[in-house]
Write a structure and sequence with these properties.
By secondary structure, the protein is an alpha+beta fold. It is about 30% helix and about 30% strand. The chain starts with 6 loop residues before the first strand and ends with a strand. The relative contact order is 0.16.
Length: about 170
């Protein structure tokens, strides 16, 4: 495996600001046409929340994903995971109402803090695998480029699981 420097991936600032502007415009129009204070507060509460969320994403300084040779870091949870602890990874593509959404789903084996010896003298670990789901849409790098970087660091192809609709069946392809 060749040596790579760490790659920092942030939210796409331009997209986040565009969505924030859209929600701000809708909030201003809705509040200006509200007939009562309660209607204006409902509009502010319902449409102001996504506006604030997109503004936070646009001006967030912490990266969403950091990939280097030995580890990857999920910026949302702060989890740092060694590539050697990644048991399985797949790309989850979900067909939604407004398009296709992409998540990298990592199955991680964590080392147990201590091991126990059972009556048969076998060493057992009681730490179940952990699943970490990382959304890779609306980031500064395209989702297919991120998948390519992860495949390169893992040294194996990533399976794609397609889901359709709200309650669609999962279809797996490589």
């Amino acid at each position: 495996m060749t040596e790579h420097g760490p790659i920092t991936i942030r939210f796409n600032k331009r997209t986040s600001l565009a969505y924030a502007f859209l929600f701000a415009l809708i909030v201003v129009i809705g509040v200006s046409r509200a007939h009562s204070v309660s209607q204006a507060l409902i509009i502010l509460g319902v449409l102001g929340a996504p506006l604030i969320l997109y503004l936070i994403h646009a001006f967030r300084r912490r990266p969403m994903l950091i990939l280097d040779d030995a580890t990857f870091t999920d910026g949302k949870s702060g989890d740092v995971v060694l590539w050697e602890n990644v048991f399985e990874v797949h790309l989850r593509q979900r067909q939604g109402v407004f398009g296709v959404y992409h998540h990298l789903v990592f199955t991680i084996r964590r080392e147990a803090p201590s091991t126990e010896v059972d009556s048969d003298k076998l060493i057992t670990s009681r730490v179940p695998p952990q699943t970490l789901r990382v959304p890779i849409d609306q980031l500064s790098m395209g989702w297919s480029d991120i998948v390519g970087l992860v495949q390169e660091r893992l040294g194996k192809p990533i399976a794609v699981k397609h889901e359709a609709g709200l309650f669609g069946k999962t279809r797996i392809s490589s």
